[in-house]
Each structure stands twice: as C-alpha cells, then as structure tokens.
Give the backbone structure.
Amino acid sequence: MLRILILGSGGREHAMAVNLSSSPLCDELWVHPGNAGTRHWAAKDCPDWRDFGTWSRWVREHRVDLVVVGPEDPLVQGLVDQCKGDPELAHLAVLGPDQAGARLEGSKDFSKAFMHRYGIPTAKARTFEASERLEAERYLDTVNYPLVLKADGLAAGKGVVICASREEAVVALDMFWVQNRFGNSGSKVLFEQFLNGVECSVFVLCDGNRSVTLPVAKDYKRVGNGDTGPNTGGMGAVSPPPFADNLFLQRVEGRIVRPTLEGLKQEGIEYRGFLFVGLMKVGEDPYVIEYNVRMGDPETQVVFPRLGPDMLQWMYGAAQGQLPHGAPWVDPRYAVTTVVCSEGYPSEPKTGAMMQWPNEPGDDRYCFHAGTAWKENQVVNSGGRVMATTALHPELDQAVLKSRNLASAVDFDGAFYRSDIGDDLLSGNRSFSRNGS
Ligand code: AMP
Ligand code: GLY
C-alpha cells in the first residue's frame, strides 16, 4: 500500500489524483497545494517544497512513499536532486527527472543541441543573445518567413512568437531584448524554421532505462475558435487524434522516442518520469517542436481518464527504476476536454466569482478543477484556466459534443471556452491539414 503526494494545483494534478485514488494500492493521497477540486486530498499543513528542510520533514513524518511532481518548476529547480541527496529520504520514490534531465524543458537551446547530437528530427534553428542584436538582424535578412522566435528558458508556454515578416520579427526581438518581457528566460532567443503540419503530444513514462508510451493527444493552444488569438497553456485536448495512425506512431517510436532515451543514457542522465514530446506531423513524418519533462495540461485531462487503476504501479515502478513489463491498460474510447477560462485570460484573468458546475461523477465524464479556490465556504474562480470538462465516448463526435455540453454548464461571471475543440478532427472536415497551433 502506498502513500502518495502529488505536487501541483492544476487540472493535470486533479486528473492524476482521480486516477491514482482509484488504485487498490493507494493507501493515502495528498495533493499540494491543490485546488477546490482536490480539497478532499488536501495536505493541510504541508510546507512549500521550496522550503526543503521543513517540506522533507513533512514527507518523512507522513511516511510518503511516492512524490509525483506535476509541473516543471520544481524539476528545473532541482527538487529531485535535493531528495536524492537527503539520506533521510532514501526510501522515497520521486517521479520526475533530476535537474540535468529537466534541462530538456528548461533550455530550448540545450534541447535543440541534444536533438542535433542524436539525429532527432526537428526544425533547423540558430540561437542569438541580446548582445548579438546586429548579427541577429542581419540573419533575419537570410531566412524564410514565417519564422519562429523562442525564448530559451521557461516562459509558461508564452515565449514563442510566430513572425509572418521581418518587421514582426524585429518587434518580437524588442519584446525579448528591450522590454525584457521574459526576463532572463528571453536573453537567448532561438530563431527557428516554421514547420507546416498538424501538432500532437506523445507522452512517455521512463524508468531511467526502459520506457512505455502512453496515449497520444492533441492540444489546442490558441485562445480563440479557429486557432485565433494569442497562445495559452492549452484550451482543450483530444485523445487520440485520428491522424496519429500506427505508421506515424511507429516513426515517432523509432526516430524520436528511442534515440531520445539513448541520448539521455549517453549523457549520463537517469531519466525517471514523464517525458512529453511535442510533435509536428509534416506529411507522414514527425518532427520535435519541444520536449517537456512532465505531463501536459490539459492533455493529462484526456490521457489519464483513458488509463486504468494500474497506472499507480507503472508510475511507482518508473520512479523506482523498474517499470513493470507489458503495457498499461488503455480505454479505447475517445476523450475530449474543453477548458473553461476566466474573462481576460491569457493576459489578465478576472477572478473571485462564485461558481457552479455539473457535479455528477461517472466514468464517461469529469470536471477537473484548475484555477478554483474555496472562499467563505464557496468555490470561486482563482486563475486563468478554471475547469476542464472531459467526456469519453466510442465516437469522437459524441465525445466532442458531451465535453462541450459540460463546459456550457460551468457557470461563473465571465466564463468562456472554445466551442470548436475537436471539430477539426471530425471526418469530413478538411481543416486539420492546416497548422494546428
Ligand atoms: P513551444 O513552446 O515550443 O511548444 O511552442 C508553442 C507553439 O508554437 C507550438 O505548440 C506550436 O504551435 C508553435 N510552434 C513552435 N515551434 C514551431 C515551429 N518550428 N513551426 C511551427 N510552429 C511552431
Ligand atoms: N498543454 C501544453 C503544456 O502542458 O505544456
């Protein structure tokens, strides 16, 4: 029997908690800091992980066996290394890579060089620093447009600008280097070739030696219907997207997943955790857009409901360096999630409104909380992305409809959502051949 602490406060962590709590091996579960949806599993007196000394004491006192790290921040900042270095936490299994592994997400410059070293297909790119502005502007005369400019470091999914022209690229460079919009994260910028295709996310659970590939998902990043407006953390997701067929997935496995794991080993990185490979399917071929060192949000809200109660064994096994053999059980139904957001998201979400939502549990529908909080005995919206409404159905069009109906029943002042999640994937709709971002 296992005592589990999930770190994080989003819809991703709520979806993981629902799955892990259904395992017969789950003795006790905490989600920290959590949200209104996970209050049932609240770790009330758990300190912040940044205060490592008191946090690790809490972990010991509560006899935690497994820590699942939801977001990237603790990984990039070295929480796993601190746990490994603490002799009093010798029996603790932590699911997430150490700081060296987390560089795959923490530095786009590092991950691009990594892909080049191991022959992993990706868009061509060059990196410039703020001090090289003249050279960078000369380079802008030599490239094709659109051009993709990316902050090297973490930028909460917002450090990527697709520039239709040289003029737009110059404006973006001002944002990175003059206005310093992303601080240090934007001091180095990747200038990357634009890939035209459809996007999807492949999730791999690794134990440092072996890996197992989990269901694939498609995320909808732009805020508006028809893929318009600014990029967000993700407005909805579908698993599996029908275009990710067997041939494509075999290519992903052979050209990307295996060489990535081999590369990590060659670099001496014992990667235990989720690896999220963001891909562009160009023709029939996969190219890596980015690596993340955690599960996606809102992709988890469609991937985890398709996984069974045996996931705890897989996750604990991965964290201990011993994945089970075989493959985890996967529900063949489609899963679709629609993210209900606060007015003003992604720039300035308005929060604090009382909420109502459909509250009928079932194995074909879920309301996963993200930016929600308890205030004076009521649930209020407390962030940009508030709730992910997931529905499962053997038919994709039905899953799409059910997820959207659930989203329309989430009620608070200023609530909005994309009402086209999954439409591009329905048969008869040709629009999915355009760039999915
Ligand atoms: P990233 O943070 O690297 O995932 O980029 C955010 C989004 O920008 C991606 O999900 C894509 O939609 C888009 N994007 C990033 N790189 C490229 C590229 N090379 N070509 C086309 N679109 C891209
Ligand atoms: N949905 C994209 C991400 O989690 O980074």
About this structure: The two ends are 42 Å apart (CA to CA). The first strand starts at residue 2 and ends at 8.
